[in-house]
Amino acid sequence: LAEGLQCIGCGARMQIDEPEHAGYLPLSALRKQIDNDELLCQRCFRLRHYNEIQPVELTDDDFARLLHQISATRALVVYVIDVFDVTGSIISGLPRFVGQNNPILVVANKVDLLPKSLNKQRLKQWLQGVLKEQGIQAVDTFLTSAKKPQNLDELLEKIDELRLGEDVYVVGVTNVGKSTLINRIIKSRTGIQELITTSRFPGTTLDRIEIPLDDGAQLVDTPGIVKRDQMAHALSEKDLKFALPNHEIKPKTYQLNAEQTIFIGGLARFDFVNGERAAVTAYFENNLMLHRTKLANADAFYDKHAGNLLQPIPAQGNTLVMHEFRTSEKSDLVFAGLGWITVPAGMHIRGWAPAGVNVLIRKAMI
Ligand code: GDP
């Protein structure tokens, strides 16, 4: 399929086999781009659509070393992600780091934030598809909420079943709720508190927390990887509390005409540039006020109301950066970590967010 195609960004020959080399694009993305008539390799795609900021996957060589140590052993990798911020949860190259042969169990946390009516089976399939595009093949996907874990025993059974007597390493980026989950696991095992030992990963300055399992193996909690392109880094502590969801989000649906704009507080903006009149559905914290206005007036509206009617605003001031997309299927326009807007196929849209915050398009979750 990639034969004879070139990236319009860097001119490299497109290829689907070697992620480390020029011109790489996963097959599914290549298919999509051919449909959209816009051929960009993964690197150029990110440059163009992600505001030139390559997400920093690992802030620390230590972390690479740590993950590499996992690859040198036989273990089950429990990879915790946040269902509300799947992109922000991605550790790219995870399978390479932890070893191709070590199974990965994906624990999708914070399901309490999604509408209860959601079909859980479909959500799992959707998640596996998204992860697969990132090269992550999970042996299983488990949905949970570390805040109110009704199915913690089930999770522990699943872990026991998959680890085949080996150690378990729990990995994840920061803010996905890994610590909350680990704490629940510790509490659920009475008397285990005193047994926790902290030690260092050999050759690094990173701590490991070891929780003994019944057969002498260990469940090892690893430090969270800091990802910079999360909304969490673009907001003050107080605004974060206000803007990020704590409870089940109530989707809001709008009938929009072309050339209309929706502001998401003062933090993000959605432009419907062109397309048939359509229903779009917004998934954000219920606190955040959404304001609809005309696209032609949107800049002036923001200048006038940012910080009062439109609240909160980014910690770094009022500039929002624009990202442009065309949808070829029912898609989510994602403001990484803040929420998303589901739009039908055939729309020309723009998403605006604070600099450094990922804005991207994905196959619709719901
Ligand atoms: P870590 O950095 O991955 O260890 O994440 P933490 O355990 O510190 O959690 C990050 C934030 O997410 C905290 O504000 C938690 O209260 C919140 N959190 C963790 N688990 C859940 C969950 O299942 N649902 C919801 N709604 N919030 C959660």
Describe the structure in your own words:
- The chain has 366 residues and is α+β, with helices and mostly antiparallel strands.
- The chain has 3 domains: 1-49, no CATH class; 61-221, P-loop containing nucleotide triphosphate hydrolases (Rossmann fold); 237-363, no CATH class.
- It contains 10 helices and 17 strands.
- It has helices spanning 27-36, 42-49, 61-71, 86-89, 94-98, 120-133, 152-163, 178-188, 237-243, 298-305; strands at 75-82, 104-109, 140-143, 167-171, 197-200, 207-212, 218-221, 252-256, 260-264, 268-274, 278-283, 290-294, 320-326, 331-335, 339-343, 348-354, 359-363.
- The strands form 3 sheets. Strands 3-2-1-4-7-6-5 form a 7-stranded mixed β-sheet, sandwiched between helices. A 5-stranded antiparallel β-sheet has the order 8-11-15-14-17, with no helix packed on it. It has a 5-stranded antiparallel β-sheet with strand order 12-9-10-16-13, covered by helices on one side.
- Strand 5 (197-200) and strand 6 form a beta hairpin.
- The two termini are 30 Å apart.
- It binds guanosine-5'-diphosphate.
- Guanosine-5'-diphosphate binds at residues 109-110, 112-113, 145-147, 172, 174-180, 224, 246.
